[in-house]
Write a structure and sequence with these properties.
The protein is mostly helical. It has 4 helices and no strands.
Amino acid sequence: MSETRYINPYTDFGFKKLFEQAEIAMYTPEERREYEASVKDYWDYFSTMKTATDKARTEEKTEIARKLKAYGISAEIIAKSTGLSEEEIEKI
């Protein structure tokens, strides 16, 4: 006997995104502005957090490089270990 499989239109074949877009298309102009403002707020927040995280990681790598350099480790090895360029390490 073969097993009957039902298609869920919300998850199968990417229809979920299409349904979301259709719902957004039915918004009133005011609802649309509010939706677009909320999407903008979300991406602004996401971008801010990503920038802060990237900066923290770079600062952490720089601190590790500074310590390794103090131990006399070569810039080549530090670069391979931290992902920083040798030029960046020389400036530390």
